[in-house]
C-alpha cells in the first residue's frame, strides 16, 4: 500500500470516475486505475462496484476510504507540523466573491505579506457556487464566499464576518418605506446566481413586494454607481467596511428583523496547506476587526 494508492482511492470516490480523478490528480486515467487495482489486489477485495456510473464504493471500499482519509490527514500533517517552525513558502490559490475584493481582502493581504513574506497569494474571483465547486475539485485551495446552505462532509467552513442586507436608494429619494422605494424606483437586482440572492428573494416574498426589475448585475460597486446616478434602487449586502457604498446613497433597513449573510473561508477538511490556511483565516478576521475599529 502507498500514499499514491490512497490518494487515487479518495479522488475516485470524490469525483465519481477514474477519468475525473485523473484530472484532479494531474495523472492519466490508466495511472489512477492501476493505483486502485493495485490497492484492491493488496487488500484482496473490490473497493468499487464498477457496474455503476458514477462509481459506487463497496462496503469494503467505504471502510478503506475512511482509513485512507485518516492516513492522508496524518501524512499531510507532517508538512503542516514542520511549517509551524518556519515561514511558509509557496503559492496559495484563494477564491473570493467580488464583494470582498475591495474591502476585506486587500487589508488581509497586507497583513499576510507582513507575516509570511514568502507566500504568494493567487486570487481568483467568482460567485460562491462556482468557487465552492473549485474547492471541491481541488482546483483552488480555499474560497472566501457566502456560507453554504449544505456543507459536504469533506469540506471545512470557518466564518469571517456577517453582513447585513440593506436597501440602497438614490440620494434625492425621500421614501421612508421599502414598498414606497420600489413603488417609485425600478429594481436593480443583485445577481440571482449569488448565494445571498435567496435571502433577498425570501424576504421580498415575506413582505409581499413585487419588483419592476430593470437590470441584474453581479458587481455591488456597479449597482451602487447606478443607484447614485438615479437609475433605480437595489437590495445588497452591506460589506461593513469603511466605504461600503457611495456616501451619496441612502440606505434603509430591509424589514425586521434584519437579514444577514455570512462570509467565510471554505476549504477541504484534509489539505496539505492547513497551517497557512489557518493564518489566512486569522488575517481575514483581523482585517474585519481593524476596519470596524477605524
UniProtKB/TrEMBL annotation:
SUPFAM superfamilies: Periplasmic binding protein-like II, Winged helix' DNA-binding domain. One of its GO terms (cellular component) is cytosol. InterPro entries: HTH-type_LysR_regulators, LysR_HTH_N, LysR_subst-bd, WH-like_DNA-bd_sf, WH_DNA-bd_sf. Residues 1-58 form the HTH lysR-type domain. It comes from the Bacteria. Keywords: DNA-binding, Transcription, Transcription regulation. GO terms for molecular function: DNA binding; DNA-binding transcription factor activity. Belongs to the LysR transcriptional regulatory family. This is LysR family transcriptional regulator.
Amino acid at each position: 500500500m502507498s500514499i499514491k494508492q490512497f490518494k487515487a482511492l479518495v479522488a475516485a470516490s470524490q469525483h465519481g470516475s477514474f477519468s475525473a480523478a485523473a484530472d484532479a490528480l494531474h495523472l492519466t486515467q490508466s495511472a489512477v486505475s492501476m493505483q486502485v487495482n493495485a490497492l484492491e489486489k493488496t487488500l484482496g477485495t473490490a473497493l468499487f462496484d464498477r457496474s455503476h456510473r458514477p462509481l459506487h464504493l463497496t462496503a469494503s471500499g467505504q471502510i478503506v476510504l475512511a482509513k485512507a482519509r485518516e492516513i492522508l490527514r496524518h501524512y499531510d500533517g507532517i508538512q503542516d507540523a514542520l511549517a509551524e517552525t518556519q515561514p511558509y513558502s509557496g503559492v496559495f490559490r484563494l477564491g473570493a466573491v467580488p464583494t470582498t475584493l475591495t474591502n476585506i481582502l486587500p487589508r488581509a493581504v497586507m497583513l499576510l505579506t507582513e507575516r509570511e513574506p514568502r507566500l504568494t497569494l493567487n486570487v481568483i474571483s467568482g460567485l460562491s457556487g462556482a468557487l465552492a465547486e473549485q474547492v471541491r475539485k481541488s482546483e483552488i485551495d480555499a474560497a472566501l464566499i457566502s456560507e453554504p446552505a449544505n456543507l459536504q462532509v469533506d469540506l471545512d467552513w470557518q466564518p469571517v464576518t456577517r453582513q447585513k442586507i440593506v436597501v440602497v436608494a438614490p440620494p434625492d429619494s425621500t421614501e421612508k418605506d421599502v414598498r414606497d422605494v420600489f413603488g417609485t424606483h425600478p429594481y436593480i437586482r443583485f445577481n440571482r446566481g449569488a448565494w445571498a440572492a435567496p435571502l433577498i428573494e425570501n424576504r421580498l416574498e415575506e413582505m409581499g413586494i413585487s419588483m419592476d426589475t430593470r437590470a441584474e448585475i453581479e458587481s455591488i460597486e456597479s449597482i451602487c454607481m447606478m443607484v447614485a446616478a438615479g437609475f433605480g434602487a437595489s437590495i445588497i449586502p452591506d460589506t461593513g467596511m469603511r466605504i461600503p457604498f457611495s456616501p451619496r446613497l441612502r440606505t434603509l433597513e430591509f424589514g425586521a428583523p434584519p437579514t444577514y449573510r455570512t462570509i467565510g473561508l471554505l476549504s477541504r477538511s484534509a489539505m496539505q496547506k492547513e497551517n497557512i490556511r489557518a493564518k489566512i483565516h486569522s488575517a481575514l478576521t483581523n482585517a474585519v476587526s481593524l476596519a470596524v475599529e477605524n
